[in-house]
Write a structure and sequence with these properties.
By secondary structure, the chain is α+β, with helices and mostly antiparallel strands. It has helices spanning 3-17, 25-32, 36-48, and strands at residues 23-24, 52-57, 62-67. The chain contains three helices and three strands; from the N terminus they run H-E-H-H-E-E.
Amino acid sequence: MDKHQIGTNAGIVWNVLKDNSHWEYHDLKNATGLSDRDLNAAIGWLARENKVDFDLDHCQDRLFLSVNVYIG
């Protein structure tokens, strides 16, 4: 895996998340078709660019992702 591939995978994740819905990790993994390693690297890339938010539900221990961009 290299930076170019991580960036490409981040684009795949971004395209799934651009509807601004909250996604559970396993649903996002299924929608993107990425492995855990590739998906985690892509999420890290988008997090570093401040393009995703994380909403942890401690009652059910779920992770949600949503696009953190103002469009308007």
